[in-house]
Amino acid sequence: MAAISAGARPVTAWSPLRVRAFRMLWIGTAAANLGAWMQIVGAQWMLVADMGGEALVALVHTATTLPVLLLAMPAGALADIVNRTRLLVGAQVFIAAVAVLMTVLGAIGELEPGLLLMSTFALGTGAALSAPAIGALIPDLVPRTELVEASALGAISVNVARAVGPALAGLIIAATGATTVFALNAAAALAFTALLVFGRIGPKGVAENREHFAEALSAGGRYVRHTAVVGRILLRAVLFVVPATAIWALLPLFAGRDLRLGADGYGLLLGALGVGAILGAVLLPRLPAGPSTNGTVAVASLAYAGTLVAMAALRRPVPLTLCMVPAGVAWVAILANVNAQIQLFLPAWVRARGLAVYQVAVVGGQAVAAGCWGLVGHRFGLRAAFLAAACLLVAGALTAARWPLPDTRGVNQNPAVYWPEPHLLMEPAPAGGPVLVTVTYTVRPDVQDAFVAAMAPVGQARRRTGARRYRLFREGEASDRFVEAFLVPSWEEHLRQHYGRQTLDEQAQERAAVALAEGPPVIRHMLPLAVQ
After folding, report:
1. 371: which of 144, 210, 317, 425 is 20 to 30 A away, CA to CA?
2. 304 CB-near residues (< 8 Å, 6+ apart)
3. Could you tell me which of 418, 444, 459 has the C-alpha nearest to residue 519?
4. Is the confidence at residue 10, as pLDDT, over 90?
C-alpha cells in the first residue's frame, strides 16, 4: 500500500472498520449477504422437497442473478442522482417486505413454484438496486489508501456468507422448515435498514441541479465508452472471472460425483474457500501496490490455476480441501484489487454508474461462464473442464504484460470548476439543444504536432463529460488556427460540464494543451434555431 506517514496508524486488513460509518455498512451488508444465501437454499429446498420441482431448481439462481444484469445500469443511475442511503433503505425495506410475504405464503402452503420464482426475482431486484449504491458509498467513507482493504472486507462478507449461509440454512430447514430462512432473510434486511437509518451513513442530501434519469443513464454509458482505464479494468476482471468460475460452478458436481462426499463434505470444501478468502484479506496490506499489483494479480491467477490442476489430478478429499485455501486467497487478492482500482478512478458524479457496469461484467461473466463450464463438464468431463479453465487462467495472467491493470492511486478525480462562465446575449432553455461548442486556438507551426497530440486526451474528456460528437479541425484559411467542435445534447448538459463533471486531472490535460497555443482560446456557443 501507499507509504504511511510518520505517526499515522499502520494499514491492516481491518483498518477500514475503524471508520464507524463503514463498519455499520459492512455489518449490514454481511447480514444481507447471509440472509440472501440462506433464502436461495430455502427456495431450492422447497422446490425439490415440497413441490417436486427438481427441474426448476436451476431457475432459482437465474431469478437471483438476472435482475443484476437487467437493472444494474438503471440502479447505478439512480444511485448517482438520488441520496444513496435513502435508496439503500428503500431497497432493503422492499426486500424485507417480499421476504415476509414469502414467509406467510410458505407457512399457509400457498407459495407455488411460479410465485416462489417471482418472489426470488423480486429479492434479486432489491439486491440489484443496492449494489451500485453500496459500492459508490465506500470511497466516501474510507481513506483512498484503504480502499483495497475495504474491497477485501467486502469479499470476506460475500465468501463467508456463501460458505456459512447454505450450511446454516440446511440445519434450520431440517429443524423447522424452509419458511424459517425466509423469515431470517427479512430480519437481516430489517437489521440492515436499522443500521442505515441510525448509523449516519452517507451524505444527508443530494447534489443540486441533479440529472434526470434518462440523461443520467445515457451519460453513464457515454462515460464508460470513452474511458480507456475503465475498459482495461473490466478486461482484467473478465479475464480472471470467466475461467475462475469453473470452481464455483462445478464444485457441487465434483464433490458429489467424483469425491463421493455428502453435504458436509461439500460444505467443508466451501469452508476452505472461505478460510482462504479471509486469509487473502489479511495478506493484502502486506502485498505490493501500484505497478506491482499486476505481479500480484499474475501470481494469484497462477495459484488459482494450480488449484484447478489439483482438482483435475487428485481424488483425495483432504489434500483437495487444503488446495481450496489458495484459491480463496487468489479470488480475494484479484477481485479486491480490481474493485479498488475502479473505485479509485471513477469521479463522484458517475461512480455508481461505472460500478454498475463493473458489476454487470463480473456477475454476467460468472453467470455465462457457469453455464459454459457446465456444458464443458457434461460433454468432456469435469477433469477436462478444470484443465481448460487452468489454461485460460495462465493465458490471462500472461496478458498482464500487454494489458496491465492501470495504477489509479495517483489519479486526481476531484471536481474542478475551471471553465469560464458562459455569458450569452440570450438565455437558452435548460432542456434546449443540441448545443454546438467551438473553441478556436492559434498555434505556432513549430508546436502544432505537439498541440494535436495534447488535444487527444482533451477530446476524450469532452466525450466523457457530455459531448455526443467531437472533432478537432484545422482552419483552411489560416494555417495557424485549430478549432475543436463538440455537440452536447442540451444546454443543461453543457452547464454540467462547466460545474461538476470536469476533474483536476482533466484540468491539467487541458492546460497542457492551451499552453501550446498563442493567447487564450476563443469560445463560442451555437444554440439551435427553430426553422419555420
Report:
1. 317
2. 240, 244, 326, 327, 330, 331, 334, 393
3. 444
4. no
Residues contacting residue 328 through CB under 8 Å, at least 6 positions apart? 159, 272, 273, 274, 275, 276, 277, 278, 279, 280
CA dist 526 and 436 (Å) reads: 5
How far are the Cα atoms of 182, 309, 414, 464 from residue 506, in angstroms, in the given order? 49, 46, 10, 11
Most confident of 44-58, 105-119, 404-418: 105-119
Residue 295 and residue 401: Cα distance in Å, rounded?
9
Predicted TM-score (pTM) of this structure: 0.85
d(CA 52, CA 47): 6
365 near 248, Cβ under 8 Å? no
Q: Which of 219, 217, 208 shows the shortest CA–CA distance to 77? A: 217
- Lookup: cell for 23: 463498519
* CA–CA gap between residue 84 and residue 298 (Å, rounded): 35
Q: What's the rounded Cα separation, in Å, for the pair 287 and 264? A: 34
Contact 125, 72 (CB under 8 A): no
Cα separation of 431 and 496, whole Å? 12
d(CA 371, CA 369): 5
Per the CB < 8 A criterion, the answer to whether 40 and 182 are in contact is: no
Distance, CA of 26 to CA of 24 (rounded, Å): 5
pLDDT surpassing 80 at residue 317: yes
Given its phi and psi angles, is residue 143 left (phi above 0), alpha (psi -120 to 50 degrees) or beta?
A: beta
Q: How many CB atoms lie within 10 A of CB 333?
A: 30
Give CA 528 to chain center in angstroms: 38
Give the integer Cα–Cα distance in Å for 80 and 211. Answer: 9
CB-based burial, 88-99: b 16+ in 10 Å, e otherwise: bbbbbbbbbebb
Contact (Cβ atoms closer than 8 angstroms) between residue 481 and residue 441: yes
Distance between CA atoms of residues 401 and 328, nearest Å: 24
Q: pLDDT exceeding 90 applies to what percent of the chain?
A: 47
